[in-house]
Amino acid sequence: MKSLLTSKYNWLILLILLIAINWLAALWPFRADLTAEKRYTLSKPSRKLLADLREPVTVDILLGGEMPAGFRKLANSTLDLMQEYKANGRSRFQYRFIKPGEGMNDTLKTILYDSLSRLGLRPTNIKAQTKEGEGQEERLVFPGAVISCQGRTTAIDLLQGVSAQGGLESLNKAEALLEYKFSNAIRQVTQDTVPLVGYLVGNGEPLNYQVFDLIEKVLKKDYAFRILPIDSVPAIPEVFSALLITKPTLAFNESQKLKLDQYVMQGGKLLWMIDNLYAEMDSLQRTQNEFIAFDRGLQLEDILFRYGVRINLDLVQDLNADKNPSVVGSVGGKPQIELLPWPYFPLLTSYSGHPVAKNLDYVVAQFPNSMDTVSAPGITKTILLSTSPESRVLASPARVTWQSIQTEDDLKTFNKGTIPVAMLLEGQFSSLYANRLSNEQQDAWQQASGKAFAKSSVPGKMIVISDGDIALNAVTQNEGPLPMGMNPYTKYQYANHDFIQNCVEYLVDNSGILESRSKDYTLRLLDKKKLEDGKVKWQLMNILIPVLIILIFGVSYQWIRKKKYQQQ
After folding, report:
1. Crossing angle of the two packed helices 69-89 and 178-190, in degrees rounded to 10
2. Which superkingdom, per the lineage (predicted)?
């Protein structure tokens, strides 16, 4: 060993050793994630997705160049994530950071920006440093990425679904959603088949521009899609992975409910979006003052009750609400209108931490009803969306008026705590008709549908939302259909689109990628009060301690040196 170390070829041995170490590190890359929330560790579904890539995937992140601190922090977090993706995807995963429009003339820039906008990427106008000493430039930045594989292309907006008004907290949520957004996009461009999702009609469900965003931007974009008239089939075909029941206005008869029940028993997934009371903005605008919300009579109480939930005949109000134009006075005989929070349009959020709704901005509802859970053996219930603690319930017959809060005593009644509006049900459902159909009726069902009558389901899941408007979009005369969840007056877009998209994905997708939405990035901010109180102390420590260390080192060195030479 000694001769080896003193050999004249030791440099060659060292070089070979270093090459071998680097080669082994390339084959089996290893990084230690020491963060408490495992911020830099990919979830198991994401690792499996990348390991199973059969074709090269290219990711272009549009965050190149100089940017303000917030965007730069987002870019750095994206770079960290891309390095993890590269380590798992190996040669089949490539990424790069680009500055859109760099080196292009104005015409080409306009074409490029228009293409990115059509992909769903929304630009933000920023001022950024160009080169040191050359001032700033004003340019558009697209906080997103374009993912491509075998001619298929999709885009993700890294800030979509999080509040644009939340500062550091919103940026932190955006970083927590990075893995889900990238993994979900990669899954979309690499999968060969997609689930079939149906839109049920036959009971007054809307088929107009109000469901444009739902059908065109959610269902048709990510899934095979069909409109299914419920009375056109003897039984709902099992080929449908999920069905959406969106704001029905006409009562369901027993034959229709039997079809839905047996679809669930065969493992079908349902997304219910139900308005039990008739309460529409059109009614308020026609009466100019107020109206009474009344029961639609949908006859769905018994089937939902059997599955474990009840939608009540009431209206929910919340002080944390979206803004609507309200008359606040009159000047010169003309009404003065301001945008004020309207309690009938509550802003919903998630307190359960379920990946369907976690890290989302508020979801806006319109005239929602309250929900209760009821006993249903074998069914697990998870509240996905609730009101704020400052909410109340108006029992039916509920009066809807522009000015529902007139005194301080009215404000004190908003004390009912969080009220559920969206519920996830999972488990083995029992049929509503298990002990209600005779043998002859069961035989008639089997003969008509070609399927045996089932009294209980295989393990399944459904989502019940007590607001039919949650998936509808506003339509204006000048702009046509707006994005789902966008206020037509303030132009602020809430997270309705992302929430409905997550609901459908959770029902039909078995890859588990949605689990990565449950990541929780802790925002560790300095305590401003402690920082201010101890400001002088820490400043003195940062100035004096380094000086003292240098002086001690200098004195010690001189003392040791003097003693050494005195002995000589």
Report:
1. 50
2. Bacteria
